[in-house]
Structures are given as structure tokens and as C-alpha cells.
């Protein structure tokens, strides 16, 4: 009976988009709120990796178990990653280690409105450029118009706060880190599209690389008193929350849904959909973090939404990658 309950590709793509947008919105608001609490950025990165590893690494081992029993050489990193070593390093470095490190550090210097503009808000621009350069994807007129609406909306949402960065202080550091984080995630999304990675396996590879590379390095630097940490000062409830939300939520769930969304819509259209996040996260910052609500916020949200609807409806749907559907394709 379970085998007969299959969702259509359109339904899976839409559900993946909704889940991704909700988690990414919560990620910005919660990460900014966490920046004023006890844990340091690298502490949150560690909790994120450990939370995701607790779910994905045993899953990856079980997934590759039949192939190993058959005598096949599969995966890399001592059986923790289901992808070959080169692809594991590429995806893990861009979509895992660098993205998390840059993003969480940026929240220490810049507010959520800056993150709303410079991370998910700039993804369509970065991805369009990268897809044009490496995938030779043409930018249709309708897509360009939609991107124009999105850019204008993003500027209205956070333009005023971005201009304040030129008055001095350290906000500009966070802005640069957010831009670099967005570039890393856009590069990962284009890499997913070019190789047609399976959603589950790509997320497992990201986590395996981060676990093998970051965790020992973190322990070594902390042990040598080179890297500061507040793990011993923070309550276990805070550490557990970060591991569950940042690891299981932001990595396991949204990592799979985002990759599935990229496989269905393509990298550029997917990042146009996630451009909903700037407006929603800015509203979340107003409600939960007490940031001021201005007319440009509402106008920017309307423009971003209009740009997404126009660009997605007018753009041609890309041909699906010839890979097996991940677990997200079945009930």
C-alpha cells in the first residue's frame, strides 16, 4: 500500500520548496538571536555538524551496506560518505563547512536585515551568473525581469540598514561574510545541478566531510587554546537546541528538500523561490527580535513575491536529471 502512495514530481517539488523556505527563514532569525547568547559561532558550527552527523552518518553506513557486502568499492571517507572523494570534498567544502562558518560568524557583526538581503536575497544573482558561466544556461527575458523585481525588493527591504554600514563600526565585516556565504551556497547548488546528485547522498556527503575535517580541527585548536569556546559555559539545553535545529533541521531536512527542489526546478528557479526568505525573515526579525518595521519592508516583500511568481511561471522547466528519486519522493 505504501508503494502505491506516490506523490507527483510537481507535488514533491512544491513541498520541498515550502519546507526549505520555512527552515531558511527560521535559520536567519534564530542564528541572529543566538549571536547574543552564550555560544560562539564555531560552537554553533560544531553543534550543527554533530546534530546532522548523528542522523546522517549511520544512515549513510546503512545505505552503502549492501554494496559493501557485495564486494563493491563505494563511497569515500572510510565509508562515511556515499559519494566519491572529489565530489564529497567539493560539496562538503562549499555547502557545508564554508557556508556554516561564514554565515554564523557574520551574525556576530551584522543584524538579521543584512543577512536577509545578502544571503538568500543575493542567491538568484550569484546562481544566475554561475549557471551561465559553468552550465551555459541562457537567461531568458522573463527570468531577467523576475530577477530585477527580486533585486529591487531586496534593496528596499535592507537598503537603509546596509547604508548605515558606511558610518563605521564592524557591520561591514558581517556583510562581507554574508556575501561570501551566499556565493558558497550558490556554487553548491550549481554543482548539484551539474552532477545530478541524489538529494540524500549529497547531504550525507556534506555532513561526512564536515565531520571528518571540522570536528578534529576544532578539538585540536581548542585543546591548544588557539580557538576560544563557550561550550563549557553554555547550558546543555542550548547546545541540544542548536544541534537539533541547526543540525537536524537546517542540514538534514532543508538540505534534502533544497537539493530535491534544485533537481525539480533547476538552480536558478530554485533560488528565485528561496528569495521569499528575505521578506519573511525580515518580518520575523521585526516580530521576534524587535527590529523596526518601515514602509520599505512591506514594499520590498511585495516586489520579491511578484518577481518570484513572474520569473517562475514564465521560465521553462528544465529537464530533470537522470538520477533515482530520493526518499522524499515517496510517502
Structure description:
With 331 residues, the protein is mainly α. The protein has one domain. The chain is 73% helix and 0% strand. The protein is built from 12 helices and no strands. It has helices at residues 9-34, 41-69, 85-109, 112-118, 123-134, 141-163, 171-195, 199-223, 236-265, 267-273, 276-288, 295-314. Helix 9 packs across helix 10 (267-273). It starts with 8 loop residues before the first helix and ends in a 17-residue tail after the last helix.
Query: Any idea what the radius of gyration is?
Result: 20 Å
Q: How would you state the average pLDDT, rounded?
A: 82
**Which stretches of 5+ consecutive residues score pLDDT under 50?**
316-331
Structural class by helix and strand composition:
mainly alpha
Helix content: over 70%
Order of helices and strands: HHHHHHHHHHHH
Q: Characterize the quaternary organization of these chains.
A: single chain
- Quickly count the domains: 1
Structure annotation, total helices: 12
Shape type: globular
Alpha carbon gap, first and last residue: 10 Å
Tell me the β content: under 5%
Give a short account of the largest sheet: none
**How many β strands by DSSP?**
0
How is this structure best summarized?
With 331 residues, the protein is mostly helical. 73% of the residues lie in helices and 0% in strands.
Task: Pick out its properties.
single chain; 331 residues; mainly alpha; 12 helices; 73% helix
Itemize the secondary structure elements and their pairings.
Layout: H1 9-34, H2 41-69, H3 85-109, H4 112-118, H5 123-134, H6 141-163, H7 171-195, H8 199-223, H9 236-265, H10 267-273, H11 276-288, H12 295-314
Helix pairs in contact: 1-9, 1-11, 2-3, 2-8, 2-9, 3-7, 3-8, 4-6, 4-11, 5-7, 5-10, 6-12, 8-9, 9-10, 11-12
